[in-house]
Amino acid sequence: MNNKQNSSLTQLVAIGIGSAVFFILGRFLSIPTPVPNTSVETTYPFLALMGVIYGPIPAALIGLIGHAVKDLLTYGLWWSWVLTSAVVGFGFGLIGKQLKVNSGQFDKNDMIRFNVAQVIVNAISWIVIAPVLDILIYAEPASKVFTQGVVSAGLNSLAVGILGTILLKAYANTRTKAGSLKKD
Q: Where are the membrane-spanning stretches (predicted)?
């Protein structure tokens, strides 16, 4: 099997397993907030890790499939937020292209760049895309969905900023740094 086939197979497996983990985290490790239909999510720090490791397309599919399965098995499919999870995954994957986590590098500067970028991805996704889709698809009241969006953007940014940064640092520490091996 050549590297391209191996890479495609690896990504396919990552999408399947990642979607299952996204569902499990979303179903069993979400903390409700006083704002209706919003939670502190552990799914997005995990999605950030998957995006940085595997790239934009696998992360978008993990967000799309994982969120869709969670919705289908809980209260019903809510397309606006499912699609937004795909956008978030894609954004995290784009951020990952700028980092060298797979090469064992994730220093303070990388953490700052990652977190500035993830806050932007979360803000665009949850303050703009999700509410606009809620209005267009479901005719939801603007004040309700923009409130939910602002709360979700803040909570997701905080969760990714803390848990996502920890996950990325831990993962980077498991990778062999380029040039770190020496022949005796």
A: 12-31, 43-65, 77-95, 116-139, 145-168
